[in-house]
Every structure is written in C-alpha cells, then in structure tokens.
Amino acid sequence: MYIEKINSPADVKKLDINELEVLASEVRSGLMNRLSKKGGHFGPNFGFVEATIALHYVFDSPKDKFVFDVSHQSYTHKMLTGRKDAYLYDEHFGDISGYTNPEESEHDFFNVGHTSTSVSLACGLAKGRDLKGEKGNVIAVIGDGSLSGGEALEGIDFASELESNFIILVNDNDMSIAENHGGLYKNLKALRDSDGKCECNLFKAMGLDYLYVGEGNDIAKLIEAFKKVKDIDHPIAVHVNTVKGKGYKPAETNKEDWHWCMPFDIETGKSRFSFDGEDYSSLTCDFLMKKMKADKRVTTIVAAVPTNIGFTADKRKEAGKQFIDVGIAEEHAVAMASGIAKNGGKPVFATHSSFFQRTYDQISQDLCVNGNPATLLVNTASVYGMNDVTHLGLYDIPMMSNIPGLVYLAPVNCEEYFAMLDWSIEQDKYPVAIRIPCNGVIHTDKPVDTDYSCINKYKITQQGEDIAIIALGDFYQIGEELAKLIAEKTGKAPTLINPRYITGVDEEMLEQLKKNHSKVVTLEDGILCGGFGEKIARFYGADDMKVYNYGLKKEFLDRYSVEEVLKDNHLTPEQIFSDIA
Amino acid sequence: MYIEKINSPADVKKLDINELEVLASEVRSGLMNRLSKKGGHFGPNFGFVEATIALHYVFDSPKDKFVFDVSHQSYTHKMLTGRKDAYLYDEHFGDISGYTNPEESEHDFFNVGHTSTSVSLACGLAKGRDLKGEKGNVIAVIGDGSLSGGEALEGIDFASELESNFIILVNDNDMSIAENHGGLYKNLKALRDSDGKCECNLFKAMGLDYLYVGEGNDIAKLIEAFKKVKDIDHPIAVHVNTVKGKGYKPAETNKEDWHWCMPFDIETGKSRFSFDGEDYSSLTCDFLMKKMKADKRVTTIVAAVPTNIGFTADKRKEAGKQFIDVGIAEEHAVAMASGIAKNGGKPVFATHSSFFQRTYDQISQDLCVNGNPATLLVNTASVYGMNDVTHLGLYDIPMMSNIPGLVYLAPVNCEEYFAMLDWSIEQDKYPVAIRIPCNGVIHTDKPVDTDYSCINKYKITQQGEDIAIIALGDFYQIGEELAKLIAEKTGKAPTLINPRYITGVDEEMLEQLKKNHSKVVTLEDGILCGGFGEKIARFYGADDMKVYNYGLKKEFLDRYSVEEVLKDNHLTPEQIFSDIA
C-alpha cells in the first residue's frame, strides 16, 4: 500500500502517475472505512480525491497554501498531510475533526465550516505574503455550491485587484447539497458544455484569468493543468469538472442523499441507523405543506439545506412554486422574505442557527426596520444541536433577540411550536423568529395558546412561592425538574414560568413576583452574555430580588459532550438547587 | 413651471418630451435649492434625474414598483410622487427623510439606507405578486457601486429563477462613493466601451437577459428603452450609463467630494461650513499612515468609505499597496483581514458601526473562531453618530461584544484611543475591535496605559465609596459629571471606573466593590438590551449590591435630537442622581 508510506506531501511527489492512480483508490478505501463506520461528508470527498492528490503533487504545502471552502472536502488533504491513520484505523477516528483545523496540522490554515469563505480568507493569505515580500502560491478551493454565497462573490470580485499570485480552484460537480440554484449555474453549465470556451464567462466578467479542466477526476490531466498555473503572477480561476461521490455507485446515483452520510453498510449503501420516531424536520414539513395547500400566499424558503425542515426532493416537487431554495444565499433569503411579506405573501425562511449569523444586517435593516411580517425558523439553536465549533447554535439569542422590532419566540413543546408558527404565518404585524425545539419532540396534553399577539406576556405554568423559575425554550424541562426538586427538598412549590418571548420582559409579571418571591432563577439554552436572563437581572438590578442566571458561558466549544457542558455550566437541577438553596 | 403641477406620476405622463426636458432642469433647481441649504446626497441624484422622469413616464407607480438601492438617489422620485415641496420650499425641508420611506408615500416600499439590498427586496415584491397571481412590473434600481456587495450579488444570481417580470436597472456612473473597486467594474467598462455588445457579460453570466442604454441622461432614449422592457415576462438587467453629478460642474469634475455634500455656496461650490478643529477621521489617518510607513506589514482596509477614517484620495495614493479599498464588500473585508493577520500582516479594517452589521458571521467564523489578530475600528458607534434609522450606531455592543474571542475596547479619550489602537496593531494574540470615540476629540494630560493585554481589567479613575459608576466609552464624561454631582449633593465622592473592555467583566474588581459600595451605576452609549451593563447586573444578581443600568432603550430611532433621546432615557446626571438617591 502506498498510502501507508504517505506521511507528508513530499511522499506524494515520489510516486509516478500509475502509482498515484493506485494511491487514489487506496484513499477511497480509507474514506470508505471511516465514513461507513462513523459517517461524514461523503460526496464532496469522493469526488475530490484525484484533484487533492494532484494539488499536493504539484504544489508545495505548507509554503504553498490551500484554503478549502466549507472544508468538508478536505479529507483526502488530511490523509496526505500526516493524518491518514484517522481514516485507516478505527482507533484513530477521534484524532481529527471533520473540517480543516490549524491545531491538527501546519497544512491547515483556518477552522472553516461555513460556506463561501475560502476566497476571502485566501486573499488575506496572499495579501499577507505580498506585504512581507514573500513568494509562494495561494490556492482557494471552492465548490460550485458555495459560489452563490455573498461572501464568495465579494471575494471573487475583489481577487482581481491582488495583481499577484492567486488561484481559485472551482470544484464544479454540478451540485450543492441539493441541486444548485441561481443564474450563475447556467453559466457553469455553458462553460462545461463548451469545454471552457464559451465567451460569456462569469470568472472573466469578474476580472479573472481562466482555465478549464474537463476531466477533473483524471490525475494526469489535473497535474498538467496545475503545473500551468503554478507560480502564476496574477489571479486565475481554474474550473475543474468533477463527479460528486465518484467511485461509489449509490453516491454517484443519488448525490443529494450522499452529500453527508450516517454510518452505512458498504454493500447495500443502507444506513446502519434507522430512526422511526418523530422529528421536527418532517413535522415542520408536513405542517408547512398543509398551510401552503390551504393558502397560495404561504411560501417556504430554504438556503441550500432543504431537509433541515424535511423538504426532501419529493416534497419540494409537491410544493411547487410555493417552495423556494435560494441556494447558499441566506442574506438574499431574509431580504426576499421581507419583500414577499411586504407584497402580501406569507414567507417562512428556515435554516440553522449558525447560518442565520450571515443575516444579521438583513434581519435588522431589510426586515425589522421595515416591520414586515415574515417568519424565520431557527433550527438547531441549542446545546443539543450540532457540536462542531463552526456550527454551534448557542449564539442566536444575543445576536437576534436584541434587534429592535423582532419578536423571537421559544416554544417549550411540540404543540406550542406549531401554535406559534401558525400564529406567526397568519399575523401581519411583526417580523417573527421561532426557535425550533431541539431537545426531542415533547408533547403536552394541556391546551396551548393560539394567539401570541400580546407581545412579551409570559405564562405561569405553576403558581408557587419564594422561588420563581423562568425557564426558556428547550430548558423548560430542566425548569420542571428543578421545580420538582425544590418542592421535594423544601416542601414549598416554586413558581414555574414559560416566558415564550425571548425578545422582551413581562414587566407586569416580574413586578408581581416581588410580592411573594425572593429568588428568581432563569434558564436559557444558549450563552448567557447578551442573552435572556441578563434582561431579568437588569430588571431586578435595584430590587431586593435575588436573580440567578443559568445558561452557557461565552466561549467556542468543539465536539463536546452535552452532559459535560451542562455540568460545567452548573445546569443540572441538583447543581442549581445547591447554588440557590 | 411644470414641477409646480406634478403631484403624482400621472402628471408626468401628461408632458411631452420637450416639456420633460424642462421638467428635468426644474427638478435640478429643486435639488439644488435643498442640497445647497441642507446638504445631502448630491452626485447620485443629479445623475439620475432623467432616468427617474423616464421611469415615472413609462411605468405606473405604485402598481409598478420601484425599489431604490441605498435609496440615496430617490430624491427625484420623491419630487415626482407628491413630495416636491420638500425641495422647492425651505419651510418644507423637514417633511421628508433622505431615503425612501413607506410612511411618506405609497410610492415607497421600504426604508432603505444600506447598500446592495434592492434586488433581493424587489425579488420579494415580485414573488409576492406571483404568489397572488397579480400583474405589474417590479424594478430594482441599483447603482454600480452597490453591485459588489454580497447581498446584491446573491440577489442578482437568484433573480433569474423568478421566471416572471423583473427588471434590474443598473445605474452605472463608474463611481462608488470613491472610485470603484473589484473585477466586475472592468466588465462594466467593457460593456460601456462596446455599447453593451461585449460577449463576456456579468449579467448574462448570472442568467439574466440584458439591455444597454448608453445615453443615460437622455430622456427620449430612456423612455424608448423602458418601453421595450415594460411588462417583460422574464428577468432582465437594463444597464444605463449616467453621469454622476450631471448638471453641476463642480460635481461632475470632483465626483467623490460631491457624492454627499454639506450646505454650500452654489456659485463657488464651497461648503458653508468650515471645520478646523480636530477630528478622529484625520487623526486616525495620520496615525495609521505613520504606522504603515514604519512597518510594511501594517495595512489599512476600508469598504467604499475611505474618508470615514480620513483617507482622502491623496492619502490613499501616499499609502500605496498598504491601503486597500475593497469597495462595498464588508464581509470580504473582515475575512480578508483575518487571512492577512494569519499570514503575518497587521490589518486594520474600519467602517461605520451600522455597516459592521453585515459582518457578524465573518467576525465570528472567519476571525474569532480562528483567533487571528486583526483590528476592527468601529466608527460612529454612538448616540452622537448618524441619526437616520438606517444608519444608527447603537447596536454594535450587543451584536459584537457577545461573540466569543473578540476583545472589544471602548476608549474614553483621544490618548487612550490611540494607545489601544497601537497596542492592538502590535499584539498577536487577539482579534480586537475598538469603538472610535464619537463625542468630540477629548484630550487628557494624565498618562494612559499602553498595554491592554491583561484582558478585562477595569481602571479605577477615582476611588470613592458607597456608589460606583462604571462609565463605558463615550459616556465616561457623563460618568464624570455624575460623580461630581454625587459628591456635591451627598458630600461623599463616589468611585469612578473606566471599564475599557466591553467584552468582559472584571470579576475581581466587582468583588472588591462589595466591601464599601452599595450601589453600582453603569453607563453605555448604545442600547441596554444585550449590552455591557446587563453583564454587571448578572454578576451582582444574587448579591445585595443595587445595580442601575443606563443606556438606550431597544428601539429604532429616526432623525432624533440627541438631547431629547438622552433625556428620554434618563441619561442626564441630574436624572440619574434622582433615580439612585
């Protein structure tokens, strides 16, 4: 096996073309070993094996610097830069993250997990090189799916101003996570169809030089192309046509399902996990589908992650023109939602908490300054959500809840979630965001309110005394447990409150609590800094009420255990009780 | 005068071509009257008079809907839609805002002040129309300077998916506020030079149909072109070449200075205001110039507003390659700054607080997750800053200070500001943001610290008792006044603290304060929700310390009086004293 001897890119350079071809198949075996047992990004990596080998064959990393967009296609790069064991041997699976990571290797320059950032980051490396008067190649690797993101387009537009070595490698596999969206993909197709010769050329229109490589899974052809552009003295886009999922039939056939995989059986391609419980993705899809059928003004918007709310290909087809996938273009999605609402539509835009971070200005300026009644569904906004440092859903409360004009709601169970969503779609007064619950589908048999137009009105779910627990969203259940524990330990039942509204304080209720309560405990599923509990602390700042805020410390976590994080932040009922007793 | 009889677009349609030409010159007189006395956006409006007249002549607003990008070129639109008096008669100047405003007119659909939003907002109007099965044209008007912004590029890329009527009117005057930057402007030039016939075409590459109008200040030609695209059944870009500042020699000659003007003498073009005091723009420019000359790794980055930190054309030239104007591309600017810092450069990116809103995700993911030592200068972040609803600098503390890993500093005088900036440029550990003071250039003769690496260490500037005032940044001077007032009224001097660090709490000092203080007052120049003071309130939540947080209410203000806002928020020393006494 050649792969066994690859400890750095220098070892790749020792092989001849035939050996490199064998290496490619060994790399795929390594990828298959890890991915079939542990899951991860399948399609992007299987399609980019040859290109990565050719890159390391031609260029000299880390003097030459690669920046991978999203970096979910960097697995082969990791295997060739001293981290092969994490693919070949099960006991080393835990050695690495799923993204580039400077702590792992000098060949990685950034922690990257969001799309569309590589060109700008790499522009910075190139500019830093130029300021210091140094040499070397800087190569941004970006997939076609990421091209539609505003940051990528800003970066590509700026790149031509560098006037020095800069290579943008466009890995075009004609797919985003789902199918691509947007006009520029028509141009990529025209370029592919004309072997790169089509006069109308997005990259040239953005001021770049251009080279096309039609056979992006042919190592010899790739090496030839990369040699042409190595040490080039100006910015160039190298457009490489690859096959997503290349080398594994099920992944080549069903590209969307194989973008990312759970552990699976290699022979059949079937997932080793079957989940037949309820989940909010399909429940949300069903709910929105029903709303769309009942009212043609209702429209569902996603940004390249349609299945985050259950819109698989068949559901998208069923929804027709009332379903919009804007591709990677979250800024556009929020602004367009504002426009749709302004003109009488009822838009619902859903994406992950971490990706809403791209839309702060659009939520503020395009949506809230204008007060248009669009609905934003914030997914995986929770300690129970995604746990890579680049995908954390712990910051949306400080980010979004302090924007004037937004009504941000935190339901505590399934029935309340859909009641809030229904209210939001039907009302015409407020921009509304809703945190989709993330702690499992919890049902209630108690009736839930259907009207949320009395803004910032909290709900007392258990009237008690002395201690009041204000338990927001996903942490409401911790609040319930805490309430029980307090009653058991003290013999006095505390008051339990479901605040529902993240964006404001129920001053009247908080005032009332002063009568027969001496302590208020707040709980929120996110960081404390800038969050919900601090607003309660401010309200009682000059009063005798003792306020205890519980939530997470402001920090970046990475691949954490939920249980440990909760414990570290004193978030178990027992810990809280011992703090406040 | 025709203008006297224009009360709605219907009145424009009654005129013939010759009369429309006269109307154009009357509109310019109206613009001149208001702008020479009150100031405002000069160049964008003078260049777009004919196009606006032609738009209202051909289309039927408000059934046909115009969305103006930035909307600083909408003055003629306002004059033709019932708001002419605000230009013709001094006593009506106050009737209108400087931007489109739905509260003023049914012909305005959005409050817009940030760049690059029009296409996405207009896409929304078009989609809303289609969902309801209605007819009518939707026209996004976007200047070439705004095209480089990520949101605009996302919108243009998406537009082709509409498959129904949609017109993007590109007002190309070959200028941003300063000169244009980025590769796409080379393509606009190629299109202008070829009378729109150049095969390589950015708009076509983004999937759009295309029409070129070379003479964008010729009403007849514009009417002809607009008639061609009226009721078109698919998306099209209409590329119109106009002259910025058209009709006023000084503005045609010096386009950058005349983008926006203070009141001026019409004959000479000279500003009626002369300011010969110190200002932070030129002081910052001088400081950075010196740093850049001493160290070639230092680089200054702006995003289309170079003079916000004093970089006039001559200074930009002097700085050479160490100065980068990325154009409207704030996301790119922050990500690139992270890359530059990663590769050993010392980047400083400056823009307005309101425009940093576009960069939340880049600050979080590209910069802070990676911990690269770039410096961000946050300008006009203050109640004393810009006061249009779309340009407020009141939200950056909740937005930025809760991002993990960022060190956000608030200097209280000129010397501290430059000491912090110097430290930030020279250190290599933290991403640092600094709020440029905005309450006048205040000097101190006391020595200021030069080392800020002991993160979150507050500074006691006056040791006292009972009451501690923690006065952040621009509100430090209010803190000083309050301290004096308390000493006078009570005979006991309070403690005064300059916290310096917005992003953290000096737990040791706050703990110490408990010994001989019973009250803590916090002051911050921004909204309270999610801000600095709430962190102090949380710290003391379960203690006996009384905490009083002062700052602004979470709301959108518009064209406010600072004095009134301060009073409404109980921010005068007298009001605070009466609250806490």
Notable features of this structure?
6-stranded parallel sheet; alpha/beta
How would you explain this protein's 3D organization?
Two copies of one chain form a homodimer. Chain A is globular, with a radius of gyration of 26 Å. The first copy, chain A, has 581 residues and is of the alpha/beta class. The longest helix of chain A has 22 residues. The N and C termini of chain A lie far apart (63 Å). In chain A, 38% of the residues lie in helices and 16% in strands. In chain A, helix 15 runs parallel beside helix 17 and helix 20 crosses helix 24. Chain A contains 24 helices and 18 strands. Chain A has a six-stranded parallel beta sheet with strand order 9-8-10-11-13-12, sandwiched between helices. A five-stranded parallel beta sheet of chain A has the order 2-3-4-6-5, with helices on both faces. Chains A and B meet through helix 7, helix 8, helix 9, helix 10 and helix 15 of A and helix 7, helix 8, helix 9, helix 10 and helix 15 of B.
Uncertain segments of chain A? none
Query: What's the end-to-end separation of chain A, in Å?
Result: 63 Å
Give the strand content of chain A. Answer: 15-25%
Total helices of chain A: the number is 24
Strand runs of chain A, count: 18
Radius of gyration of chain A: 26 Å
**Strand adjacency order, main sheet of chain A:** 9-8-10-11-13-12
